[in-house]
Design a protein that fits this description.
The structure is a homodimer.
Chain A (H helix, E strand, L loop, with lengths): L3 H8 L3 H8 L6 H14 L5 H8 L4 E6 L5 H16 L3 E6 L4 H13 L4 E4 L6 H8 L4 E4 L8 E4 L2 H14 L5 E5 L5 H16 L9 E3 L4 H12 L7 E4 L2 H14 L5 E5 L12 E4 L3 H16 L8 E3 L6 E2 L10
Parallel strand pairs in A: 1-2, 1-3, 3-4, 4-5, 5-11, 6-7, 6-8, 8-9, 9-10
Antiparallel strand pairs in A: 10-12
Helix pairs in contact in A: 1-2, 1-3, 5-12, 6-7, 8-9, 10-11
The structure holds a DNA duplex.
Keywords (chains A, B): DNA-binding, Repressor, Transcription, Transcription regulation
Organism (chains A, B): Georgenia deserti
Pfam families (chains A, B): LacI (PF00356), Peripla_BP_1 (PF00532)
Amino acid sequence: MARIVDVAALAGVSTATVSRVLNGKAVRADLEKAVRKAIDELGYTPNRTARSLRRQHSEVIALVLPDIENPFFTSLARGVEDIAQEAGLSVVLCNTDEDPDKQERYLRIADDENMAGVIVAPAGPSALLRHLTERERAVVVVDRAVPDDVDQVTFDNLELGRRATRALAERGFRRIACVTGPESTPTAVARAQGWREELAEAGLPAPEDLLVHVNFRVDGGEDAMTRLLELATPPDAVLATNNLVGVGALRVLSATDQVDLGLGIIGDLPFVTSPVDNVSLLQLRPREMGLSAARMLVQRIRGEAGPARQIVQPTQPVRLGAPRESGPAR
Amino acid sequence: MARIVDVAALAGVSTATVSRVLNGKAVRADLEKAVRKAIDELGYTPNRTARSLRRQHSEVIALVLPDIENPFFTSLARGVEDIAQEAGLSVVLCNTDEDPDKQERYLRIADDENMAGVIVAPAGPSALLRHLTERERAVVVVDRAVPDDVDQVTFDNLELGRRATRALAERGFRRIACVTGPESTPTAVARAQGWREELAEAGLPAPEDLLVHVNFRVDGGEDAMTRLLELATPPDAVLATNNLVGVGALRVLSATDQVDLGLGIIGDLPFVTSPVDNVSLLQLRPREMGLSAARMLVQRIRGEAGPARQIVQPTQPVRLGAPRESGPAR
DNA sequence: TTGTAGGCGTTATCAG
DNA sequence: CTGATAACGCCTACAA
């Protein structure tokens, strides 16, 4: 592997000059030309490890996610990657599996490797996260708000719950249930609170047996839906507050063909196969969230950012049935 | 950030001794104890960049995939990650978007960063890939075979096509169509060839208008399915040769409720919502493929591997309807 | 077994 | 604007 000294020797200059050419600093035109020629001839590319060691930070950012198999996060990752690529950064994807310990481990690695920055959707509180922000490392928190003074891109989850509920109420449903995530998950709680408040405002009942907490996954949605349908007085509509729970609900629905039951889903459904013409969809477009977060991070890395910013990511209006373009990936 | 010299000073030993403790080499017991205590007190962790520079390879492996939003690949990634974690390696996920140029760029980066190894599902032929294997870097190719002499984990795609077709024939279907990927995609062609051969063997017709090449995505499946249903003599069953095409086919089917039409799908359907009781599923379990590939890579990195091995990843037998446990992630 | 010291490849400082 | 040189933090001969 060619090194910078080889290039310097071939071009008849010092390594310092080669380095300057590499980094776009002022160099006499003829020397620059000679250096570029040498680089070409040797097929030289800078050793990024050495560069990182010297510069005290690498050209890699970590994207720390709780579940890499959830399309919400892969889509978000896709957005991050697109911006990172533009900025000449590579992305390391880390899967915490909703495990705070794993999360700490990955954040530690990001620190040890002197990564340029970190984007994290936190699985619980993190001492290391605070530590990183205090040490002025570039950090952006996504999707799940934390109390720390750090750049964040999140949804207004209360508002999401309200809007999705309102859409169902406006369609004439009167007994609207809510399936949401565990009480330990703030986004789940906030969306359910939005459901509660919107129903109160519309003068509709919100009995607690219509609020079901399950895990935020497909089987959670299935369980909840089954339970709701078995109720003595079942709901006439159901709000699923995330994508996977929505998938679970749809499965039960399409297996039992309950055509009359209204359904609302907060989240995107890339691989759904049953018709959703009758489903009120509040699409979150996680890719956009990834774009926002990555842009913030790049600014922070470049030192162009001031005090911590907390952005509320806008979403699509609720609509009936998925528009074609949001279906397949790409 | 504490450095190795700080630990050495605090423990009253040389940096060499600290390094030895860190790397599990023989050190006098009392010194080792002192060193560990100092490490604890300072919260020291080795700087991985410096270590990489010195050792000439890092503890990171690159996973180069053509489409990070396809559940097949995220699941595969999940498997890779699990093994990597055990082996103390981090995984960098790189999305090539089926673009050979992007792929070359990422492979180049993996090389420049002295990564410990690379797992790649190739999007077309790659000069760099050959270059890497020739330079004895740890490389494993997954999912899509290449002619090079390199570790590989792939499916027997011809056999997959045959088995899935046979399952449909055994269910009594007589006019079985095949929807597969572009003719430029070897796996798509091989699976279609399996379809052709199996039909021939069963004495069933395989007219070319029942073989449809589309893109290997959801919209491809939708288009193909629509086209097939409009045929003067439509098929009585359809084989979809990958997961996304299968999703597209299911969408059309559940929108038109063609209950009589047989369907076979090669691939896993984690987020499907319509019932699949009548679908012959040949599950590939990509996570297992990721596990195999990562194990091979780890062996190669450790120098425990000899000549290049080419593994055929086993799959599940064809079955009717998805077993419960393969539905939701996890 | 332990310590000393050189070097991995790059960039930044400081003279010239 | 250019060149020599000293770091960046770690590991590993080599010598003791």
